[in-house]
Amino acid sequence: MAVASDALDSNPLLQDFAFPPFDVVEPKHVRPGIRELLRKLEIDLEKLERTVEPTWPRLVEPLEKIVDRLQVVWGIVNHLKSVKDSPDLRSAIEEVQPEKVKFQLRLGQSKPIFDAFKAIQNSSSWSTLSDARKRIVEAQIKEAVLNGVALEDEQRKKFNEIEQELEKLSQKFSENVLDATKKFEKLITDKKEIEGLPPTALGLAAQTAALKGHENASAENGPWMITLDAPSYIPVMQHAKNRSLREEVYRAYVMRASSGDLDNTPIIGQILKLRLEKAKILGYKNYAEISMAMKMATVECAAELLEKLRSASWDPAVQDMEDLKTFAGNAGAAEANQLTHWDITFWSERLRESKYDINEEELRPYFSLPKVMDGLFGLAKKLFDINIETADGLAPVWNNDVKFYSVKDSSNNPIAYFFFDPYSRPSEKRGGAWMDEVFARSCVLARDGAPVRLPIAHMVCNQTPPVGDKPSLMTFREVETVFHEFGHALQHMLTKQDEGLVAGIRGIEWDAVELPSQFMENWCYHRNTLMSIAKHYETGESLPEEVYQRLVAAKTFRAGSLSLRQIRFASVDLELHTKYVPNGPESIFDIDQRVGRMTQVIPVLPEDRFLCSFSHIFAGGYAAGYYSYKWAEVLSADAFSAFEDAGLDSDKAIRETGHRFRETILALGGGRSPLEVFVEFRGREPSPEPLLRHNGLLPVAASA
Fold first, then answer.
1. How far apart are CA 219 and CA 201, in angstroms?
2. b vs e for 199-236, b when ≥16 Cβ sit within 10 Å of the residue's Cβ?
3. Per-residue pLDDT tens for 97-113?
4. Which of 652, 631, 633 has the alpha carbon at shortest distance from 574?
5. Cα–Cα–Cα angle for 41, 46, 52, nearest 5°?
6. CA distance 494 to 266
């Protein structure tokens, strides 16, 4: 026993840390660390239930401490699984996850806590509470009901079994996607086979081959290895002249995790069946209704918005396709009359190059990561009056490429920190880009005599790593992605909310949470902002003015087609969570095909299994919520239009409007309803008009 308690004393997960000990947490710490944490939290919870009173100090403060501790420590483990996956870490998490879910259910279904919140809501002092406190009480009551607090014995038992199983299935789903992505490797030795691939892609393919044991691989002479990781997959689809290579890689991509021992098909069936059962137990018709209970939209409003955008996008998307066929025909392509999925990206790139004289690859030298970050931080200073400084070495990191930054106010006091993990590491890091919280701002959890604990965020991307001695040279899309994730981080970091349960991104309705991230993307097209970033990494020269003009002109290129793509994902998500009948006449793939006919100009391939890697809705937080991207895009485009109205050429107008944005959308967190916050910033309710205008889809919308 003594040995065990010694080991616990030195377990990094159980220490009182100012910054998470990412550098020393190992898989061996997970089982004992999480179990001991849960044991301690169980004691804290029992004490809270014994002594609870319907007051802030006797209910919310002790509750926040329990919730936060679990979030922070589990957050460390979960984050490492996303960025530093290993078989040992997987099995450790798999083993303790049921115990963690069991505790969460026990906490979420606590009757004494629920009754105390109800008592606050029904008390005579309710009207004197701040907006933020009212929102916390209302959300806690709503969440408790969705967590099954009102269920009796048999039903509660069934509900809890479902929650445990869903958690396991989600983990397995995302592991299968990672493993299936990792499994595909195509080694190419004949340079003719990869004709058209730009130097950056050849460099990366040779670097990948070298890592896989072909030590003499070079960009010039190969061999080259193609994988399904985005920095490898996308250039093949955009640039490889070899049509059969594009077909092979495309098919592998849309059929990931759909066969053999990594097949997610049965897992999806099981997830949807259990989600529907859960909804029925709670008295809802379907899972989408549960999802919407904590969002701005209703199922009907979400479907209505998607249909409005779909009809505005359809004719332009049909025209996009016609343009491609004509262009490919004029270029003498044999496939011009039967262009299909693995041709579209390739010919779109050729058309973009011809129409706007823009070559994504030739732009890369102008977007080196260090310059992009400098420009982004300069914009943040102008808009929100903050200074961002590197603080490497202040906090432990999990990989040497990870950067650590501090955010300071105009008086040079730190107000937040963030980690930035920019590069793709296919062997251990999941794909995509995301922001997450490390610590939320909180008065209750302040330490060492400070008035408040400062917020800390994660920003994770998967962009092309530096090759040789060149910095990471980014595509314009990667630049937009960094701006996007930084927008999320800003809302987390610039919050002025002292109530930890609604600080930063906490407590914000999910369909409003993409507002600041999508808002920041607009600045990539703002002349002064872009010019401050776009400096050639070798010569330092600025991006030529005419190239900037062409980038702006190309912004709406294929906007109808790109809009439909998101609408397909959002619509199939809503259909699966409202109409799908487990073991019914229509399979999940039938539904995808049916939605595809309405949202894709070229029908989805019959063998397309994209759903098997749709992690957003089966292993992320977007189940019956993918529409949020479009919902929030309406909000973010309208928010940006406030800057257009004020005048994008005037630094004074930008500063004033930026200040208002900071004091409302970035400051208020989940402490006010998103609609109220939006109206306070914009002076009116949101309108979809700016989004359609920005995408060049307005005239069509009017006739539709």
1. 8
2. ebbbbbbbbbbeeeebeebebeebbbbbbbbbbbbbbb
3. 999 999 999 999 999 99
4. 631
5. 115
6. 43
| Residue carrying structure tokens 């909310």 | 497
Torsion of CA 479, 483, 485, 489, to 10 degrees: 150
Alpha helices in 84-130 (DSSP H): 87-108, 111-121
Instruction: Return the amino acid letter for 208.
Output: T
Report DSSP state, residue 544: P
**282-297 pLDDT per residue, tens:** 999 999 999 999 999 9
Give the pair of three-digit tokens for residue 615: 């992690």
- Which residues have a catalytic role annotated? 485
Q: What is the pTM of this model?
A: 0.89
Instruction: Tell me the residue length of the chain.
Output: 704
Say if residue 544 is preceded by a cis peptide, omega within 30 of 0: no
Whether residue 702 is predicted with pLDDT greater than 60 in this model: the reply is: no
CA dihedral sign, ordered 436, 442, 447, 448 = positive
Q: In the numeric block, which tokens belong to residue 276?
A: 């529907």
**pLDDT tens sequence across 21-56:** 999 999 999 999 999 999 999 999 999 999 999 999
What integer pLDDT is reported at residue 5 of this predicted model? Answer: 64
Return the structure tokens found at 380.
């943040």
Choose among 361, 348, 353, 700: nearest CA to 558: 348
Report whether 323 contacts 352 (CB < 8 A). no
Tokens of 579: 């109409």
Q: What's the distance, CA 84 to chain centroid?
A: 18
DSSP conformation letters of 39-63? HHHHHHHHHHHHH--SSIIIIIHHH
Pair type for strands 186-188 and 224-226: antiparallel
